[in-house]
Write a structure and sequence with these properties.
Blueprint (H helix, E strand, L loop, with lengths): L21 H9 L7 E5 L6 H13 L3 H4 L14 H8 L5 E4 L11 H5 L13 H15 L9 H12 L6 E5 L7 H12 L5 E7 L7 H4 L3 E3 L6 H15 L7 H14 L4 H8 L7 H13 L4 H11 L2 H19 L13 H4 L3 H19 L4 H14 L1
Parallel strand pairs: 1-4, 1-5, 2-3, 3-4
Helix pairs in contact: 7-8, 10-12, 11-12, 13-18, 14-18, 15-17, 17-18
The structure holds zinc ion.
The site of zinc ion has 8 residues, from α4.
């Protein structure tokens, strides 16, 4: 169980269910003969909604679905080898439509790969350029399974023949980021939700369900996939962090504290917390603060700081770390105490004016953009250090 992130990644369609989703899974499958036409899987990012949906899709379409029902709920899923399951794996299932198309998972670039963090990298070591290039494209896709692209009425119209055609068997339509539908698109979809056809399932996924039209929400049934039992989340994270983390935790109680802190920082989203704890940058938060103080006071030059960080972290990780720390400082500025209990903020950093921090964050955004346009890491690092030294 829970081998979501082993070396050989299981396809997202057939991966084990997360422990905090077992009840929801069992409840949903128990109603298999009277499943609602429209289902909504909603909640903040990092709770495993999409993983749940893809597993559910595999089960719905699997040729052995009904035979599967004699197994315990947590073991029910797609069989992984029938024609339907093979189509899923190859991304060519004729009875599955996904909007936007970019959200369709493939076996290699599964969402799990993104959730596991960059665990292919050894401790604090830079990877080779070619390795980085492949990883870059991979992780970008995996961690952003669905970019915020608007779903237009034409997109929904193209789906309608698929939804309305008469045929035996089940057909599944997944609309990821359903809150990104335009009003016209939502209204077009509404008609099909009001006139359900047998065997057709429309699965909506949304990180921001408050943005969904109430008419849509009233036509679909919500499936609760967010964690409710903290204990199962903690146990899961304990297990995963031990096998995946890039740095060692001194002991179990320290690890338990770290897990609780990361969960608090992630607003309770387990996969976001896991990503944090197993990232290359999370362990460098205190060093980042010390280095920034040294830069600001002139004890260390921008060039020296740039050299140090270039040897220590990938530019992407350094940017994530900087954004994380600056956001925390800006929250302090708004009167919200930091949730990071394991680092020491110098008072003068906490007193920095909010406008300056926002300006620096905007500058980091520009640098991020330039990195995407293949500006050399060294140049980006030099630029960043100069900006940090100025503030
Ligand atoms: Zn199957």
């Amino acid at each position: 169980m829970n081998q979501h992130t082993q070396q050989s990644q299981p396809s997202v369609y057939f991966a084990p269910i997360f422990p905090w989703q077992q009840q929801a899974w069992a409840r949903l499958l128990a109603r298999y003969d009277r499943l609602p036409h429209g289902l909504l899987f909603s909640g903040m990012q990092g709770i495993g909604k999409r993983a749940f949906v893809w597993r559910f899709v595999a089960w719905l379409l699997c040729e052995y679905r009904d035979q599967n029902l004699t197994k315990p709920a947590s073991e029910q899923g797609g069989c992984g080898h029938c024609q339907s399951c093979q189509w899923l794996t190859s991304g060519t299932h004729p009875d599955l439509q996904v909007l936007p198309v970019a959200s369709l998972p493939t076996e290699i670039e599964s969402q799990y790969a993104g959730m596991a963090g960059d665990n292919s990298k050894s401790k604090n070591k830079k990877t080779s350029a070619s390795e980085k290039a492949t990883k870059g494209t991979k992780s970008n896709k995996a961690t952003t399974p669905a970019l915020s692209t608007t779903i237009k009425i034409e997109d929904i119209r193209q789906l309608l023949p698929f939804i309305s055609q008469g045929s035996s068997g089940r057909r599944v339509c997944v609309i990821d980021n359903a809150d990104q539908m335009t009003v016209a698109a939502a209204n077009a979809l509404l008609k099909t939700l009001e006139e359900p056809r047998d065997g057709v399932h429309i699965l909506l996924i949304s990180d921001m369900p408050t943005r969904l039209l109430p008419t849509i929400k009233s036509r679909v049934q919500q499936v609760a996939v967010a964690p409710t039992a903290v204990q199962s989340v903690q146990a899961y994270l304990m297990q995963q962090v031990k096998t995946e983390a890039l740095f060692e935790y001194t002991d179990e109680s320290n690890l338990a504290q770290q897990i609780n802190q990361a969960l608090a920082l992630a607003n309770g989203a387990p996969l976001t917390a896991l990503k944090m704890l197993t990232s290359a940058w999370y362990g460098f938060r205190q060093i980042w603060l010390n280095a920034w103080m040294a830069l600001r006071s002139g004890r260390r030059s921008s060039i020296a700081a740039s050299d140090y960080w270039q040897k220590t972290l990938e530019i992407d990780d350094f940017i994530k770390l900087s954004e994380f720390m600056l956001m925390d400082i800006s929250r302090y500025n708004l009167g919200i105490a930091s949730l990071q209990r394991d680092v020491q903020f110098e008072p003068q950093l906490l007193q920095l004016p909010l406008e300056s921090i926002c300006a620096l964050l905007a500058e980091i955004d520009d640098i991020k953009l330039s990195c995407k346009q293949n500006v050399q890491d060294k140049i980006a690092y030099d630029h960043l250090m100069a900006s940090l030294a100025r503030l």
